[in-house]
Design brief:
The complex is a heterodimer of chains A (509) and B (345). Chain A is of the alpha/beta class and 509 residues long. Chain A contains 13 helices and 17 strands. The termini of chain A are far apart. Chain B contains 17 helices and no strands. Classes of the chains: A alpha/beta (509), B mainly alpha (345). Chains A and B meet through strand 15, strand 16, helix 9, helix 12 and helix 13 of A and helix 1 of B.
Chain lengths: 509, 345
């Protein structure tokens, strides 16, 4: 199928910076004393708590249920007692606190009885999806979109290809690499389950060419499963190869419509770690209670990949990796291109935490002074979406948000390539995020204003109608009165006529 | 433990404005040496004068505008303006010509439009055109290449310095040390009805274009190629200029080679190569997209030919660049590239 690879536009050759954390095997971290489970670890509605403070919970027990369609359940990641459901610092760019279920571990790490769906090959797609949903699985590449939704095909368009994304193009991050090296069987098994759920014809597992060990392990796993539908594809290492749209372009030469989904062109894309999680949920009956996190950067003593329980606080994760080293300037969740800084290491590991990066000042120098844009166009050359960042920047500075949208601001995937190549050191991505927020805010405002206008108009109409009705009523009353009056006159006339007749009668007699 | 927050990306920036501008200066070095070889020390002195006045004007304008000096002087953009203007001046032009030119370029064409990144016109070309229009006599008195004039009248470094700052020493035979540029010569001769074949037998002509000039052109080409290799500039604008000029020249040359110079002559004469690689590629005043830049380059090339063939000046790079600077926003408007995932037109 993928005989010939295509090339996505733009992008950058970046240093891998992955050696430190891939030197040693994945280390499994024992459950910490305290688990902090944010109710919102995914895209969509926050989960709804199903436990109360004081309740004892077991590992794998659902402590919060999915609320609405786009949402995901959350499970206790060790056994212990729920001590509170309250606001706690969460890993979010805002640095704010959000509702979390807080569990004090009892150290016994008792799990609920797993219920494997071992005969999944005979189960229908709906049952597999339900299992994935109940296991609380979300996209583990960092986006954290509820996975079961992406396992339902599209009724109008037959699904052609499932892509398992193992590109992992961002510097420093190596959790998928290590997963593929050590647990390739789980990835391929997960791919087979996903193929069943999606009724897809075949599956491409994409790995960047800087991960030969992972590719070798996957090849071995493929030989073991001997499933002709699944194929390993080695793609060039180029940032952002792991971007869903860029990877699809590389593998198929096709573009996802700007206002659509990969599904619209018969493709579904999942991360390799998500596939492994699906395998665990279906074959072993284990919900998502842990994930592999790359802990790296010059500021951490023993860079490595850790399988950590969801809800482990970053401070404890760092301590497990030998603690901080040197002068840590930034603590970043995610990679150095698209990650965000954490205000404090008190925030917990969540399902989306692929990497924790403790950077020293030498590694990530503070920005130099920004110079004006010289329109050199380096940003446009680097942009994988074929945008003109220099024009977007120009119009953002002028707050001309209409023009910004004409230049397709909303096709920006915020990969940061333009930012990195800018000779004037302009924080372009920050400008584009600002413009997006402004436009969303404006649209919301406009929606509100429209709403208010409609309400005002409705009220006006109602008042007019009421006034008209009042008028009508009064008019009718008046008429009735008139009629009544005129009715009286007739009666009087009749009476008068009768009287006259009576008189005449009397006169005659 | 608490940490400072900052927006992504966190990797160190890959380049800087100063680094880009400095590479442009490096790329001009070999051609500058060739220029000195053929025309003496004049250009170096002109460069020094221009640089001193450019930096002074830049510093003055920055402080008037309340801008920090260090980052903006460090960006080397004023240096480029000065060096390019020096390239455009006759090597023995009086010192105040370079001074007036760069001061106009920096003060009016650059800072009054908002400084680095905001200038509509290429500052060096704006400065050059002001000089050309205001001081036509001084601007066209070009020194003859060294090989044309005898050892006895060739200007030494000190004599060049004196010529620039105090005028030619008394007793200098001006006609002996100066000569028309090949473009100028060809133009005058053509207007007198001579055929190209006989005009080019004159000793100022070399293999393809002006003797000496063509070698400077070769070194400018090398410098430009290096800039492309370093990805400081892209191929669209230089290719556009040379193709527009050479293509149009080829058509007319094909029709009648006795009254129209060859495309090779046009490309290697005057400021064509300098303009294509070092002047028209100024990103600030050029269009933003690749397609736009190709169109921009082509139009400059065509305009240069039109001005050379039918206009009032022997060369037309400066006017062509300035005219197309005005068209840049218009080109930008119609050459927006197709964004990923959008309909193909």
């Amino acid at each position: 199928m993928a005989e010939r690879l295509h090339r996505f536009r733009g992008g950058l050759e970046l240093p891998g910076m992955k050696e430190a954390a891939t030197a040693s095997p994945i280390r499994v971290m024992p459950p910490p004393k305290r688990i902090v489970l944010p109710l919102s670890q995914h895209i969509g509605e926050p989960a709804k708590p199903r436990v109360a403070p004081g309740e004892r919970v077991l590992r794998g027990q659902m402590v919060a249920a999915a609320e609405g369609i786009i949402s995901a359940a959350i499970h206790a990641s060790t056994s212990g007692t729920v001590v509170a459901i309250e606001d706690h610092l969460v890993p979010h760019p805002s640095g704010l606190a959000a509702p979390c279920i807080i569990i004090d571990a009892d150290g016994r790490d008792e799990a609920i009885e797993p219920v494997p769906l071992s005969d999944w090959e005979n189960r229908d797609a709906g049952e597999i999806r339900e299992r994935v949903r109940d296991a609380g699985i979300v996209g583990l590449g960092g986006a954290a979109f509820p996975s079961w939704i992406k396992l339902s095909g599209n009724r109008d368009q037959p699904l052609d290809t499932l892509i398992l994304n193992g590109a992992e193009c961002e510097p420093c991050i190596s959790c998928d690499d290590m997963l593929m090296r050590e647990r390739a069987d789980e990835v391929i098994s997960g791919a087979r389950i996903m193929l069943r759920a999606l009724h897809a014809r075949h599956c491409l597992v994409a790995v960047e060419d800087n991960k030969p060990e992972a590719a070798e392990a996957l090849q071995a796993a493929l030989a073991k499963f001997a499933d002709p539908r699944i194929e390993l594809v080695i793609v060039p290492s180029r940032y952002p190869q792991g971007g869903e749209r860029q990877l699809i372009e590389t593998l198929t030469g096709r573009e996802v419509p700007h206002d659509g989904l990969p599904l619209d062109i018969g493709i579904v894309c999942h991360n390799v770690a998500t596939a492994a999680a699906v395998h665990r949920a279906v074959v072993h009956g284990e919900p998502l209670t842990s994930r592999i996190v790359t802990v790296t950067g010059g500021g951490v003593a023993e860079p490595c990949n850790v399988e950590a329980r969801i809800g482990t606080r970053m401070s404890e994760l760092i301590a497990f990796c030998g603690g901080y080293r040197g002068d840590v300037a930034r603590l970043i969740m995610g990679g150095p291109m698209m990650g965000f800084t954490l205000r404090s290491d008190d925030a917990p590991v969540i399902k989306a935490s692929n990497c924790l990066l403790a950077g020293t000042a030498e590694e990530f120098a503070p920005r130099r002074e920004t110079l004006p844009c010289i329109r050199c166009g380096a940003c446009a050359d680097a942009c994988p979406a074929s945008l003109l960042p220099q024009m977007l920047y120009w119009h953002t500075r002028a707050r001309d948000f209409e023009r910004v949208q004409e230049y397709d601001l909303f096709d920006c995937i915020e990969c940061g390539s333009c930012d990195l190549v800018c000779p004037s050191q302009i924080p372009l991505v920050s400008h584009f995020r600002y413009a997006k927020t402004e436009i969303w805010g404006k649209n919301e405002e406009r929606a509100k204003a429209d709403n208010a206008r409609r309400r005002h108009e409705a009220r006006q109409a109602r008042l007019e109608r009421e006034a008209r009705e009042q008028e009508e009523k009064r008019r009718r009353k008046l008429e009735a009165l008139e009629k009544m009056k005129s009715g009286d006159a007739k009666k009087a006339e009749i009476a008068a006529a009768l009287e006259r007749a009576q008189k005449r009668k009397e006169e005659r007699s | 433990m608490n940490f400072n927050q900052a927006p992504a990306p966190f990797l160190k920036p890959l380049t800087s404005v100063g680094a880009i501008m400095r590479q442009v200066l490096y790329a001009l070095m070999p051609a500058t040496i060739a220029y000195v070889w053929f025309f003496g020390w004049g250009i170096v002195i002109q460069m020094l004068i221009a640089v001193v006045f450019a930096l002074a004007a830049e510093a003055m304008m920055l402080s008037l505008r309340g801008k920090p000096l260090r980052p903006f002087l460090g960006d080397c953009s004023a240096l480029i303006t000065a060096v390019l203007l020096a390239w455009a001046l006759p090597p023995t032009a009086p010192w105040w010509l370079a001074a007036v030119g760069v001061i106009f370029a920096i003060v009016f064409a650059k800072h009054l439009y908002g400084g680095l990144g905001y200038n509509v016109f290429n500052p060096a070309m704006a400065g050059y055109v002001v000089l050309l229009i205001s001081f036509p006599q001084q601007m066209t008195q070009w020194i003859a290449p060294d090989f044309l004039i005898g050892e006895s009248v060739r200007l030494s470094f000190m004599e060049t310095l004196q010529a620039i700052f105090a005028g030619f020493p008394a007793g200098t035979d001006i006609d002996a040390v100066t000569a028309a540029t090949p473009l100028d010569h060809l133009r005058t001769q053509l207007s007198q009805g001579a055929a190209i074949q006989e005009i080019t037998t004159h000793p100022i002509y070399g293999m393809a274009a002006g003797h000496g000039w063509e070698w400077i052109g070769v070194f400018l080409l090398l410098g430009g190629a290096w800039l492309m290799y370093r990805r400081v500039i892209k191929w669209q604008i230089p290719a556009g200029v040379l193709l527009g000029l050479g293509g149009l020249a080829a058509i007319f040359w094909f029709i009648d080679p006795s009254t129209h110079a060859s495309p090779l002559f046009h490309v290697f004469s005057g400021a064509a190569i300098l303009g294509a690689f070092f002047i028209a590629t100024d990103p600030v005043s050029a269009p933003a997209s690749d397609k736009g830049r190709l169109i921009y380059g082509l139009c400059i090339g065509v305009l240069v030919y039109v001005i050379r063939a039918w206009g009032g000046y022997p060369d037309g790079i400066a006017f062509a660049v300035l005219l197309m600077n005005m068209a840049a926003p218009f080109i930008d408007h119609y050459t927006k590239p197709r964004t990923y995932g959008h309909e193909r037109p």
